[in-house]
Design a protein that fits this description.
By secondary structure, the chain is mainly alpha-helical. Helix 5 packs across helix 9. The structure holds fe (ii) ion (FE2) (2 copies). The site of one fe (ii) ion has 5 residues, from helix 3 and helix 6.
């Protein structure tokens, strides 16, 4: 078994790690933390837009939104399998990993705790949140953990459809009536500060810094946030809409944007205590779905128990 120093040198030289390879416990634990949070965020990310599936303005929008919601749950389940694989030494399966979400032991992204009160919010979530997720997940394509990077290839491809769907809703509203443009501007005003928090604090915590050391991730929170601002300021301005931040300025020398700090304490409280305006209602919907699907999980287990083993 190689030493932890050898392992670090290996990942620094862009070496890739497979599920069957030996790895330091710290690396395994950080991967579980990252992928577990990612998985439950995908699942909870389906809920704000799910609220709009039955209220979408046309059948085409309804179909597209329904497909997106299904994709997000699929992303969550695929990622839970990865986390389950890594959790084998701890004998924690998907059931336990999902219970962590339902019982509030694992965090999910700040944006999915918030309200989506209008149809414009459903579009802006695809436009900004999926757009932000693409930036984070494209960075993770270079992750040292090869199964995660491979899975993200497919996920990022689908996120790009989600972003295009959101953009299409946003473009339709931007070229609509005054009332539609006002509704769109109000949604941008609601989601922009949440997106400033989305990438995490400027000063990264110890676990995130260790993830950089291990090349589980390859960019800092601030680098990701700057990439997002760079990409979205011109897009939003091109629509004749404003960005609700008077401090937004690009520094010519560094190329970095200054921005007004989101309410770090409030968002952090929301994420750590599931204390956002929609956190508990959406978690309750998830618990209800979990209870309703119990019969299927039991049937699946029974089928696995009685299935002839391979080669028999
Ligand atoms: Fe997703
Ligand atoms: Fe998505």
């Amino acid at each position: 078994m190689q030493s932890d120093e050898d392992f670090l040198a290996y990942v620094h030289s862009l070496g890739k790690v497979e599920a069957v390879d030996g790895m330091p416990d710290e690396y395994r634990d950080l991967l579980i933390k990252q992928i577990h949070m990612h998985a439950v965020s995908e699942i909870m990310g389906a809920y704000p837009e799910r609220e709009w599936v039955s209220r979408a303005p046309t059948i085409q929008r309804r179909l597209a939104l329904n497909a997106k919601v299904q994709d997000e749950i699929g992303h969550g389940l695929m990622l839970l399998r990865l986390a389950e694989d890594l959790s084998r030494p701890y004998r924690r399966g998907r059931e336990a990993l999902l219970d962590d979400l339902l019982d509030g032991r694992v965090k999910f992204h700040n944006v999915f705790h918030l309200e989506a009160p209008t149809w414009a919010d459903a579009g802006v979530i695809g436009f900004l949140v999926d757009g932000g997720a693409i930036i984070t997940q494209a960075m993770l394509l270079n992750s040292s953990y090869a199964p995660y990077a491979r899975m993200l290839k497919r996920i990022v491809a689908e996120e790009s459809f989600h972003m295009q769907h959101g953009e299409s809703v946003v473009l339709a509203l931007a070229s609509g009536t005054d009332a539609q443009r006002e509704m769109l501007q109000a949604a941008i005003d609601r989601w922009w500060p949440a997106m400033m928090f989305f990438f995490g604090p400027r000063e990264m915590g110890a676990a995130s810094r260790r993830m950089l050391d291990f090349r589980i991730r390859t960019m800092t929170n601030e680098e990701l946030r700057q990439k997002f601002i760079n990409r979205y300021v011109p897009r939003i301005q091109a629509l004749g809409l404003s960005i609700p931040d008077s401090a937004l300025r690009k520094d010519a020398a560094s190329g970095n944007w200054s921005y007004t700090d989101p309410d770090w304490d409030w968002f952090s409280h929301v994420v750590h205590h599931n204390a956002g305006p929609m956190s508990q209602a959406r978690l309750e919907l998830r618990r209800q779905a979990h209870r309703d699907e119990a019969w299927f999980r039991q049937a699946e287990q029974l089928a696995a128990t009685f299935a002839p083993s391979r080669g028999a």
